[in-house]
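MODEL INPUT / OUTPUT PAIR
PAIR INDEX: 1
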Amino acid sequence: VLTDPAFMCGAIVANYFSLPFVFFMRGFPCSLHYTAPQCPNPLSYIPRLFTFNSDRMTFFQRVENALVSLLEPMYCNGFYEDALKLSSEVLQRDVSLTELVGSASIWLLRFDFVFEYVRPVMPNMVFVGGINCGQKK
């Protein structure tokens, strides 16, 4: 099943029928595309979304980064609350967001690795950069 994680319908259907599924995505709002497949995500180096920090942070920016990372699971679970309720009803068991998206077979990431922070990724993560780029005039 080729699906977009903005709507969890594809992931829920794939889990229900025990089918492999592929995410074709730009990224999750709370770095879930790195947390779910268990990629290393060091707080001292990788800046969090909306902090506007670079990979070279001062001590206080690292503290801010750590605090933002503590809040990410709460707002991400709130954002996908309805999808988690639906998936618990359909799959007839309690499902966490990380468990639901972590079972993806392949992650097709629509961004170029060059523009992101250098970080280790899992073997099932494939960068397909250049899709969102406009043609120069």
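PAIR INDEX: 2
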Amino acid sequence: ESFPPLRNEAAVRVLRGRMKGIQGHCNSCYMDAALFSLFSCTSVLDSMLFKPFLLCDRNVQSILRDEIVNPLRKTGFVRARSVMHLREQLTEKGQCSSFTNAEKDPEEFLNLIMHQILGVEPLLKLQSGGQEQDCYCHQIFMDKQEDLVVPHVQQLVEHSFLSSDLKLVEIPSCFIIQMPRFGKEYKMFSKIIPSLELDITDLLLDSPRECCVCGDIATLECS
């Protein structure tokens, strides 16, 4: 039996409280947070759970669907053993023994499971310096901004695209964004406010936009 993503009052009722979410174990936080974000309250990537992609590993797909996503949506809780089962499979498929015990970058996890194991097409098409590149998520890299104390996600994405000279070639079907990294020694921001809607108008390549002076269609863009 498959369960739909949690919405509104149901999400609050099922996911809030003690012993809720995905249980952490042995440096699994990067994977726990990524899986919770991708599947708990949205169905945009549910094709990963059901669709028989060309390169799809059905064993990994069934573990992801039946042991992690469905229990999360049904009861709001996933045991660490289920995530470890997935990590063991990723270790076997990815020829990387540290997936079961070491902390990884979420982007490395997404690339492995989406590209190499499930065969999902890249979600993002970006252009930088005239060169196009395909990827599955955008990791925010930026210098410390003194005027951004408690930023919104919208501000971070815009600053990141501007500083890296990036543009979206097309509107993405799914826009996965990894927040600025931080560790025990350093945190760039103590808090980040989620933007419930993301305006990507200024991030799109060759998108018609309004001139901020006269209101007509803009012909020039100043960074």
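PAIR 2 NOTE: Residues 32 and 218 are 43 Å apart (CA to CA).
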